[in-house]
């Protein structure tokens, strides 16, 4: 093992033992770790530009070397023996290399591990077909929540599950279900090729790492319409923003057809934020969940998206609720403070009223 790899592994070991989620490395700076959402410097010597570059050059898979050299950025997985597995993004900034690593937990999380309310998530996990989208900002725990849902399916249902990931995050062991996990670049050259071939692989459930473009979404719709259940993630903060992002994939002349397809195939959105807890310095998920019932499908079909948020705020249905409803639950349970709930609320004035017992009605 080279001296550079030892330096990196020591930093990664410290990060894992400290419970950090991410490690940020910038040339000629000491390492930084993100703990409970906050970035903190590590007491260590600066890592030189040559050492940062050497780490990527040494550990990037051979099939990605050309991309690193030509494009100046690359994603891959790195395993450090006895420490853990990490998702790596190497990139250049101002002419020098930087790296961001995310620790990938070796054990598939459960709803209880993550502090999630399982009932609304199980309603979506039990769907026979359709599209379920897990949304949130980078670092909001989307992949963990999706993994917990697939983990429950694995324990309870006999399904053939094909995942398309860049890179693979959680490694599943077959239980009642059979998993085929394909890593882009290693198991299949491109995401586009993986998407085109997935329906020929006889899946019951398809996990698409990220809903990234129109072609991906059209494939997801095609799979949903032919009896498959599709899980994917999307960068969007709320249900309203998620709907807007979906329809941005389609030009104006295709909007009517797109609404018809989405109304028919969408089963639900799970939007997520991580909120600091009152004790222990950790974070707990808060969710906004939309379960696409008949009323929601009709509103999507008619393009009346503005009415959906009102239904989430006013509804008492356990299958669909707003962020404020879930933040209210977490405050009343003593899990998060009122101040933190208000800070993360998309509508703090409304949450303030909720906490006083005042709720909107439809």
From TrEMBL:
Matching InterPro entries: P-loop_NTPase, PilT/PilU, T2SS/T4SS_dom, T4SS_GSP_E_ATPase
Bacterial type II secretion system protein E domain span: 199-213
A GO term for molecular function: ATP hydrolysis activity
One Pfam family here: T2SSE
PROSITE patterns listed in its UniProt record: T2SP_E
Record-linked Gene3D superfamilies: 3.30.450.90, P-loop containing nucleotide triphosphate hydrolases
Family under the similarity heading: Belongs to the GSP E family.
NCBIfam families in alphabetical order: pilT_fam
Protein name, per record: PilT/PilU family type 4a pilus ATPase
Gene source species: Rariglobus hedericola
